[in-house]
Amino acid sequence: MNSDNKFGYDLRTTDAPIRPLIPHLIFIRDKNRWGSVFRFGILQIDSVDFISIAQAMQLACAILERPQDS
After folding, report:
1. How many distinct structural domains can be found in the chain?
2. What is the pLDDT of residues 20-44, one digit of tens each?
């Protein structure tokens, strides 16, 4: 394990620009003031938004392969 990796796992991702995602993210209600949603730290997002962000980051993981919740 790499000493820089304090969590014991490593997920290969790429940077994903936020602006192309903003119109599609449900948890960002005010698209003009999109940064305000992040002001209070940790927030919960639904699986649709999670998958959109993960795909933009080119993250391959089990949750992307599972069927969507009904």
Report:
1. 1
2. 999 999 999 999 999 999 998 899 9
Distance CA 25, CA 48 (A): 8
Is 70 part of a structural domain of the chain?
A: no
Candidate ranges 21-25, 39-43, 50-54, 61-65; pick with highest mean pLDDT: 21-25
Q: What is the DSSP letter of 66?
A: S
Rounded to whole angstroms, the Cα distance separating 41 from 48 reads 20
The contacts of residue 8 (CB under 8 Å, 6+ apart) are: 1
**DSSP for residue 67:** P
Does this model's pTM top 0.90? My answer is no
What lies within 8 Å, CB to CB, of 53 at 6+ separation is: 16, 21, 25, 45
Whether 27 maps to a domain, the answer reads yes
